[in-house]
Amino acid sequence: MSRWVDHPTVSTNPDTPSFKARGRGKGDKEQNRNKRTVRLRLLPNGAQERRLRKLADVTARLWNELNYVRLMQYRASGKIDFKGTEHEFYHRYKSVLGVNAGQVIRLNNSAWKSYFETLRLYKQGKLPRFYGKPSPPGFWKDKLLGKRKLIILVRNDRYYLEPINGGEGYVILKDWGLRIRYAGRIKWAGRQGMLVIKLEDNRWFAYMPIEVGGKPAKTNPKGYVRGVYEKVQIEKPKGSNKAFIDVGLNNLFAVVFNHTDTAILIKGSTIKAEYYWWKREIGTYQSIRDWLKNHGFESWRKYHMFYLHAEYKQHERLRHYYRTAIRFLARIMHEMGVDEVFIGYPYLVNQDDGNEFNTNVWWFNKIVNWLKDVLQEYGIRLNVVNEYGTSKQCSICSMKHESGRVKRGLYVCESTGIKINADLNAARNIAKRIGYNTPIPRKILSYIVTTNGVKPLTPMEGVTVETPQD
């Protein structure tokens, strides 16, 4: 569960970025909190691979043709004949896709209705100022190659799993008689949703939403995924302590507590290094591709594939680092007896003061949502606090020192001369904003995110950097 907290009161605000289920009823929010998505690697043989490609191509063709017809209707009259186009395209593709054609059509319906709603808000001036005019739903295709994106949608009662052990098994696609091997641990047990099969970087993945603990319909007894846990909350909090987090780039997480003078810093330098390494690779392939294409060489297609691979790897690597850091932080806070977390949210920072760091490298909205999901497993509540001004304010004397941040990572109180880590200073101000006083950190546990987990940076066992310094 997550809440939005703002000074001076604690309140629940469904319009904040911490909520995914906007405009829904209470029952829908409860159900949404118990939903998780499992990602499985599919390992088809040669014949299955060719069959998947054909089905995915037909699925994308259905989306593109349906979307094109609706786009022409919208441009001609400003309206769309949903019922007529649904009937026409469902029966046109039912012979190949079966009832799964209806899933593609429903998804397109949802995309167009979302577009109309966003357009209405735009015309009424109710969208945030950084929003431009919304665009109609796009097509499933690579614009340069002209090839369709390969995606298959499978209705929740048209497939089931045959697990072999905890890390592998078979996905059975009923309508096409396919029994495809998969690899991947299924953590959650519950009612399965619509299966999405995608070709990513020349590998097949299956995304399976699960309503954790939900029971399947009587008409679909096999629509139940047997995972390890039947409840999202796996552990119970070990205490009633509070933690306060400032999210940043150099220090991904700066954490202080209300019950101890120990603080935690998780460095984000490896994330920036990974981003810039792949940025260089992407730029290199892009420039070679464009030069070859402009000079009439067909080999540009090969470098375009290299370019797409580099973009995919950059995203996956950053995702791995962030998820690793979040899982580690949640576990360590649980061990420290935390039952409630308050995290500073830099609301509209990339719109008001956007740059490469806070737009491309720093996934703060995803970080908050991922942290919320992981903390829920430990029974820890997450509250989102507007952190505006917490970096400039001094947590020692509560005054604002314009020149207090003398260098990256150091804040000096001009009144007392006490030095403190700048991000820990912001974390203490987040605590003050909602009425908590935290001890001045004197023991800092530093960590860095690596490909093999989070590693300690503390110089020697039992020796830490002491701060503040008089």
Features:
alpha+beta, Nucleotidyltransferase, domain 5, 2 domains, 9-stranded mixed β-sheet, 9-stranded antiparallel β-sheet, 10 helices, 38% helix
List the helices and strands and how they pair.
Elements: E1 2-6, E2 9-10, H1 26-33, E3 35-43, H2 46-77, H3 82-97, H4 101-123, E4 151-154, E5 159-165, E6 168-173, E7 178-183, E8 190-192, E9 195-200, E10 203-212, E11 224-225, E12 241-247, E13 251-257, E14 262-267, H5 269-294, H6 300-335, E15 338-345, H7 349-352, H8 356-361, H9 364-377, E16 381-386, E17 410-412, E18 419-421, H10 422-433, E19 443-450, E20 453-456
Parallel strand pairs: 1-16, 12-15, 14-19, 15-16
Antiparallel strand pairs: 1-2, 3-7, 3-10, 4-9, 5-6, 6-7, 8-10, 8-11, 9-10, 12-13, 13-14, 17-18, 19-20
Helix pairs in contact: 2-3, 2-4, 3-4, 5-6, 6-9
